[in-house]
Design brief:
mainly alpha, Arc Repressor Mutant, subunit A, 3-stranded antiparallel sheet, 6 helices, globular, MarR family transcriptional regulator, DNA binding
């Protein structure tokens, strides 16, 4: 494997990711980044959850998850639900405003990527898709082998 080409590929990926994040952030009207959006997505997908569960799912520390949850609550995008029988059990739940923010984030994300990929031909898109699928499979295979 040519190390120079790998280094160039890493640089290109980082440049593309940074540009996409900046374009997304400029278009997204809420003062939050990608991490809180990922949390909102998990809440939409799985419903209310404990912050500890969310931290594990999205790969954040408990402290980072507390900060994300506080930001989402302060913006009205999520709310904390307390268990009547055990006030120590707190779940985070997405609000209607959070649902709207997530829908908008997904639309903006789709627009950003559509603009990015519109320079590629159909054949190039198919090649790129095969490469991405191969990389994703490799990631999943590594996770499986590390679990055993």
């Amino acid at each position: 494997m040519n190390q120079t080409n790998i280094f160039k590929l890493i640089q290109a990926i980082e440049q593309m990711n940074n540009d996409n994040i900046m374009r997304f952030t400029k278009a997204f009207p809420y003062p939050i980044g990608i991490s809180p959006i990922l949390v909102l997505y998990e809440l939409r997908t799985k419903g209310p959850q404990k912050q500890v569960e969310l931290a594990e799912t999205v790969g954040y520390t408990k402290g980072a998850m507390t900060n994300i949850a506080t930001k989402l609550v302060n913006l009205g995008l999520a709310e904390r639900m307390y268990n009547e029988n055990d006030r120590r059990t707190i779940q985070l739940k997405m609000t209607a405003a959070g649902e709207q923010a997530l829908t908008e984030a997904q639309k903006i994300g789709k627009d950003v990527f559509t603009q990015l990929f519109e320079v590629l031909s159909e054949e190039e898109i198919n090649q790129y898709l095969k490469i991405q699928e191969k990389l994703v499979k490799s990631i999943h295979d590594r996770k499986k082998s590390n679990v055993k």
